[in-house]
Amino acid sequence: MKLLIASDIHGSAYYCRKLLEAYERERAQRMVLLGDVLYHGPRNDLPREYAPKEVIRMLNERSNEIYAVRGNCEAEVDQMVLDFPVLADYMLLFEGDKVIYATHGHVWNEDHLPPMKPGDVLLHGHTHVLRA
């Protein structure tokens, strides 16, 4: 299964559109969102084209294709407007004999690893820095 992985949209309609364009272009079958979907947070500036209601609409149209975890900016009220689960702290995905541990990154990250076996994969965002 081809996954498109993204994090930290922070309510930006501009970046959400870019995400959906990449999703279509890459012909991915699911999106994995690593948190901070709607709110920008009190420490962050407003992102480009901050429009959480537009992001809600765009993502809800794809709700059956999205797996998501909770970021440090998610609140229970976000779940009230999103048609896919966003309040899990982490998720486990399986690829053959490998486990993919997906989380936001504010608790578990490369400097503070969750319980993992050698060869397993950790996915996280939170840093606002593109890395692989």
Verbal overview:
With 132 residues, the protein is α/β, with parallel strands linked by helices. The chain is 22% helix and 20% strand. Helix 1 (13-26) runs parallel beside helix 2 (52-60). The radius of gyration is 14 Å and the shape is globular. The two termini are 19 Å apart. 29% of the residues are buried.
Attribute tags:
Purple Acid Phosphatase, chain A, domain 2, alpha/beta, 3 helices, 3-stranded mixed β-sheet, 3-stranded parallel β-sheet, 132 residues
User: Terminal Cα separation, in Å?
Assistant: 19 Å
Identify the CATH class: Alpha Beta
Q: Write the CATH homologous superfamily.
A: Metallo-dependent phosphatases
What is the β-strand count?
6
Label the structural class. alpha/beta
Tally of structural domains = 1
Strand percent estimate: 15-25%
Major sheet details: 3 strands, parallel
Residues in helix, %: 10-25%
* Order of the strands making up the biggest sheet: 1-2-3
Radius of gyration: 14 Å
What order do the helices and strands follow?
EHEHEHEEE
Q: What would the principal axes of the Cα set say about the shape?
A: globular
Q: pLDDT below 50 for ≥5 consecutive residues: which ranges?
A: none
CATH topology title: Purple Acid Phosphatase, chain A, domain 2
Write down the oligomeric state: single chain
Q: Quick check: average pLDDT?
A: 94
CATH architecture call: 4-Layer Sandwich
Q: What's the total helix number?
A: 3
